[in-house]
Automatic annotation (TrEMBL):
<feature type="transmembrane region" description="Helical">
    <location>
        <begin position="316"/>
        <end position="335"/>
    </location>
</feature>
<feature type="transmembrane region" description="Helical">
    <location>
        <begin position="248"/>
        <end position="266"/>
    </location>
</feature>
<feature type="transmembrane region" description="Helical">
    <location>
        <begin position="360"/>
        <end position="385"/>
    </location>
</feature>
<feature type="transmembrane region" description="Helical">
    <location>
        <begin position="58"/>
        <end position="81"/>
    </location>
</feature>
<keyword id="KW-1133">Transmembrane helix</keyword>
<feature type="transmembrane region" description="Helical">
    <location>
        <begin position="117"/>
        <end position="138"/>
    </location>
</feature>
<dbReference type="Pfam" id="PF00083">
    <property type="entry name" value="Sugar_tr"/>
</dbReference>
<dbReference type="InterPro" id="IPR005829">
    <property type="entry name" value="Sugar_transporter_CS"/>
</dbReference>
<feature type="transmembrane region" description="Helical">
    <location>
        <begin position="425"/>
        <end position="446"/>
    </location>
</feature>
<dbReference type="InterPro" id="IPR020846">
    <property type="entry name" value="MFS_dom"/>
</dbReference>
<keyword id="KW-1003">Cell membrane</keyword>
<feature type="transmembrane region" description="Helical">
    <location>
        <begin position="286"/>
        <end position="304"/>
    </location>
</feature>
<keyword id="KW-0812">Transmembrane</keyword>
<feature type="transmembrane region" description="Helical">
    <location>
        <begin position="159"/>
        <end position="181"/>
    </location>
</feature>
<dbReference type="InterPro" id="IPR005828">
    <property type="entry name" value="MFS_sugar_transport-like"/>
</dbReference>
<feature type="transmembrane region" description="Helical">
    <location>
        <begin position="21"/>
        <end position="46"/>
    </location>
</feature>
<keyword id="KW-0813">Transport</keyword>
Length: 456
């Protein structure tokens, strides 16, 4: 299929065409996030297979470190695939990242356990996790840029927010698949080898997504630049050579993305770890609580993305981070009180009353709401901040550096702080501090981009 004509006005695109773009982009992105986050959802169980079992806490922290390695790899993926996306096109780059992500996730299902091959097992796991991180470093920037370059200027927050839901939807799908597999197999079988099935399913999902994406047109703005011979010869060099562009990347990272990253990952992943590993609520109940909060909270990404088209990106994003900084400690303390009051210890895990489950689900929904405010408008903001010919690179580098180093490592850092201080709540001060710092920097330096036409 031929690429779209470069003669294009994004403000006059038919709604049907726009939805085709959103759906084709989102399906693949949900699958990539599913692949990336299923590792986190199963980290407690994976630790039993790939690390020595004589110290469960050390094994779990080792698995979280491997989980974090994927986040550390993301900025390098952003550099590599951002450059490719600005040179050869958005479409072809995120087709490649999809295949890399799916292949590495499927391969995790086939790794022999620690008892079979010793330290080679966690080494292979770490390598595949790094490949996942590299792939995701290219995926998000491509999907966000692709949809944004089609979206009308006055509704870019609304339409790019659908891409923002894909991270949470991928997390939700991972939880659902895990719970279904666990229920069908039984807990013992699932912990022994059944956990591999959700990873193996990735192969099927990726093949379906590849055929959907293969028939997509190239981004019209990229096609226009290509026809006019104005593509960047060296996007990475241009992104960093310009003092003005370097400044924008730093402002975007420390005035928006760092806070967004810790709020998103704390509100979903660390909440899951906190309930299951720290408060010792049973695995199934924990995941049902998180899943319920995601069902309620996911539409809010679009709500706040749409609202940013009217009141501005900056107010919504910084508002979500400020609320997180203010309410994290009381909300996590409240969760602890609920488990103490409504939980019964059975086989080293707390079983909650229905009242306790509902209250925890409400708190987790509040956490997802903060994340949706911080994350919903940020794709539109980042795309509007940078020029088309170096947009993929300029967006991907700060986004994945901040989310990979600060946001993605938040569950590990928070869990580690709790372990070394022997406190249930010391870990929560890490996201509180980074959220508050981002709000201060953002209030001073962050520009408002609402309604901007995209720069050629």
């Amino acid at each position: 299929m031929q690429d779209a004509s470069p003669i294009f006005d994004n403000n006059k695109i038919p709604v049907k065409k726009l939805w085709q773009v959103i759906i084709a982009s989102s399906v693949g992105t949900v699958i990539e996030w599913y692949d990336f986050y299923i590792f986190g959802s199963l980290s407690a169980i994976i630790s039993l297979s790939f690390f020595p079992k004589d110290d469960p806490t050390a094994a779990f922290l080792s698995t979280l470190a491997a989980f974090g390695a994927g986040f550390v790899a993301r900025p390098f993926g952003g550099i590599l695939f951002g450059r490719l996306g600005d040179k050869i096109g958005r479409k072809y780059t995120f087709l490649l990242t999809l295949l890399l992500m799916g292949g590495s996730t499927f391969a995790i299902a086939l790794i022999p356990s620690y008892s079979e091959i010793g330290l080679v097992a966690p080494a292979i796991l770490l390598l595949l996790r790094i490949i996942q991180g590299l792939a995701l470093g290219g995926e998000y920037g491509g999907a966000a840029t692709y949809v944004a370059e089609y979206a009308p200027d006055a509704q870019r927050g609304k339409y790019t927010a659908y891409i923002q839901t894909t991270a949470t939807l991928g997390f939700f799908v991972s939880i659902v698949v895990i719970l279904v597999c666990q229920n069908l197999m039984g807990d013992a079988v699932f912990k022994d080898w059944g956990w591999r099935v959700p990873f193996a399913l990735s192969g099927i999902l990726v093949i379906v997504s590849y055929f959907i994406r293969r028939n997509m047109h190239e981004s019209p703005l990229f096609s226009k630049l290509k026809q006019e011979g104005r593509l960047s010869e060296n996007p990475l060099k241009e992104a960093f050579a310009s003092k003005a562009n370097r400044r924008l990347m730093l402002i975007a990272m420390f005035g928006a993305i760092v806070g967004q990253g810790v709020v998103w990952h704390t509100g979903q992943f660390y909440a899951q770890i906190f309930i299951n590993k720290i408060l010792k609520v049973d695995f199934t109940t924990t995941n049902l609580i998180i899943a319920a909060s995601l069902v309620v909270g996911t539409p809010l990404f679009v709500v706040f993305g749409s609202l940013s088209d009217r009141v501005g990106r900056k107010k919504i994003m910084l508002g979500g981070m400020a609320l997180a900084a203010i309410f994290y400690y009381p909300l996590f303390a409240w969760m602890s009180e609920i488990v103490d009051q409504e939980g019964t210890l059975v086989n080293d895990a707390y079983q909650l009353t229905m009242k306790g489950k509902v209250e925890l689900a409400f708190i987790c929904t509040c956490l997802v709401t903060f994340a949706s405010m911080a994350y919903g408008p940020i794709a539109a903001f980042l795309v509007e901040l940078f020029p088309t010919k170096i947009r993929y690179t300029s967006l991907s580098v700060p986004y994945h550096f901040a989310n990979g180093i600060f946001g993605g490592c938040a569950p590990f850092v928070a869990t580690w702080l709790g372990a070394v201080t022997h406190s249930n709540f010391s870990g929560i001060f890490y996201p509180i501090a980074l959220s508050a710092l981002t709000v201060i920097i953002g209030m001073i330096y962050l520009p408002e981009t609402k309604g901007r036409a995209l720069m050629d």
